[in-house]
C-alpha cells in the first residue's frame, strides 16, 4: 500500500512510488507544496507517468467538510479524514495580513483540561504526518500564502511527537513551504518528557506552555496532567529547555473568572517564572456552553496584566480572534466523531 504522499519527503516519495528517476520525487514534492491536488496538474511529468500515478494513488487523503469565516478574518475548516473521523484547523489573519495556520495533532485529546472543549471529546487517535500537512495545504490552497504555523489545535502535540516532528521537517524543507523554524510554535499542556525531547533532539521551533495557574492544587484541578507533571518538575524542564536552546518560551494563561484571576494569582505566576526568560500570554477564557466557567471581568483582566507588568513580567494579551466561528482557544471540538452529529468549536 502506498503511504500518504503529503507526509513524505522527496526521497521517500521516490521510493514509495518506485520511480525510475530520483529527481521525480523532488518534482512531485514541489508540486504538492505548490498547490496542486491531482497528478494531472504536474505538467513536467510525462503524460504516461501522470496516468500511472493517478491510477495507483491519490494526493490528498482528507477533504474539507465545512468551512466558516468570521468577521475578523478567521476561517475554521472541519476536515474529514480517510477513515471518516473529523478534525478542525483554523486560519488566523492579523492586522498586517500575516496568516497563521493553527493545526491539530490528534483527533480529540486525552489531557482532559476542564476548561477546554476539545478535552470533552476524549482521544480518538493520533493524526498521521500526512493528515497534519494536509490541514495546512487545504487552508493555503484555498486562502493564500501562510507564513506561520502553531500546533495549538486539537490534541497534545507532544503525545504525537513523531508525526509532528516529521510534519515540521516537511514544512521547513527548502523545496516545500520553506517556513523558518522560528515561525513554527508547539503548544503543550506541560508534558515534561516532550519538552525534554524538544530540548535534546529539536527541532528548534518556538515553545508555548499552557500554565493556567502557578499554584499546584489549582492547576491540578483544572489540568489533570499536572498530577503526573507537577509544577516544580515542569519548571526544571523549562530551565533545561532554556539552558539547552537559549530560547525564551511563552506561558499561555487562560484567565477564568473567579478562579485564577486575582492579584495573588498573578504573583504566583511571577514566582513560577523566577529567573527564566518567559513571556506570558493572557487569554480571557472563551465561553463554551457546556462548561461551568465564566469569562473574567474586564477590570480583573486589566488588573491582572498590570500586576504582572509591575512585577517585571513581559505580558501580551490575546484578543479574541476566532470566537465568531468557535475557533478560538479552547473552543475546538467535532462531534460527528460520536453519536452527536452537531458541530462545536
Question: What features would you describe in this structure?
Answer:
By secondary structure, the protein is an alpha/beta fold. The protein has 2 domains: 5-56, DNA polymerase, domain 1, CATH 1.10.150; 63-344, Alpha-Beta Barrel (TIM Barrel), CATH 3.20.20.70. 34% of the residues lie in helices and 20% in strands. The protein has helices at 10-16, 23-34, 47-56, 129-143, 161-172, 192-201, 216-222, 225-228, 231-245, 263-273, 298-310; strands spanning 63-69, 75-80, 86-93, 99-102, 106-108, 123-126, 148-151, 184-188, 206-210, 249-255, 278-284, 314-317, 333-334, 343-344. The strands form 3 sheets. It has a 10-stranded mixed beta sheet, covered by helices on one side. Strands 5-6 form a two-stranded antiparallel sheet. A two-stranded antiparallel ribbon has the order 13-14. Strand 1 and strand 2 (75-80) form a beta hairpin. 44% of the residues are buried. The model is unreliable at 322-328 and 338-345 (pLDDT under 50).
Q: Secondary-structure map with pairings?
A:
Blueprint: H1 10-16, H2 23-34, H3 47-56, E1 63-69, E2 75-80, E3 86-93, E4 99-102, E5 106-108, E6 123-126, H4 129-143, E7 148-151, H5 161-172, E8 184-188, H6 192-201, E9 206-210, H7 216-222, H8 225-228, H9 231-245, E10 249-255, H10 263-273, E11 278-284, H11 298-310, E12 314-317, E13 333-334, E14 343-344
